[in-house]
Amino acid sequence: MHTYELDEQTVFNSGHNACPGCGEALAVRYVLNTMGPNTIGVVPPSCIAIICGPQPYSSMRIPVYQTTLEASAASAAGISRALKRQGKHDVNVLAMAGDGGTYDIGFQALSGAAERNEDMVYVCLDNEGYMNTGAQKSSSTPYLAVTSSTPGGKPSDKKDITEIMAAHRIPYVATATVGYPDDLARKVAKARDMEGMRFIVVLTPCLDGWGVADDGAVRVSRLAVDTGFFPLYEVEDGERYTINHGPKGIPVERYLEQQKRYRHLDADQIKEIQTGVDHRWSLLQARAESMARPVVCD
Hints:
Blueprint: H1 23-35, E1 39-43, H2 47-52, E2 64-66, H3 72-85, E3 92-98, H4 100-104, H5 107-115, E4 120-126, H6 161-166, E5 172-177, H7 181-192, E6 197-203, H8 207-210, H9 217-226, E7 232-236, E8 240-245, H10 252-256, H11 267-290
Parallel strand pairs: 1-2, 1-3, 3-4, 4-6, 5-6
Antiparallel strand pairs: 5-7, 7-8
Helix pairs in contact: 1-7, 3-5
């Protein structure tokens, strides 16, 4: 088993406006406290903006620019270039956006920033829907999950943002979750110390939107990984794959039964989801093996 010693700095404060037990607030804590105080944040309208709060009462002890929903990557790129113009090469620029502002509305700016290899760390806190506005579906919402705009279950698959970003051949792409905090902090630290465009997508359960118990965010996040629903891996320069954590033989039903958004499923639908999870895991293993990188999975 690979472990990473958490070296948290006090950048994220308590007393914020997140829901009790919020997985996203926990992810923000690990991300910010690992990035450190020499950071400028960029946050679009989202649950993250609510958690951040307004200045001078922000929960974040760093400068934060609250941008428009579609412009996170463009705003971060502008700040990064301005800092370099001033000779300030030691300041980190961190964009933190939800899946709506990353997979959907903000994707054009994100793809453009990746194509230009802008120097920033971009973290997508993925709660798989537009949770801040009533739990509507996004292109990150998984197949058959119930949302307020797909009451019978979403009829299409989740967009594979990780592979899309890897296809831009940027220096670093990774998946993470609060269920494996040491893995999350290690990846943020690795991205922080690199140059160019770095992208991390962090699975962050929304307790209300997913229908998860108030104390269930970490447990559900870990099950997402251990069932293979959301494996943890890294891609460097679009080619070098390293799988960190993957399925442990736990059926995906264990993950689904923790969430009200999947309560409508019958046995055949659960089997269909399991087949899809198994197939995607096989594809990921094949990519890792074809790039001559070992699969490291505990």
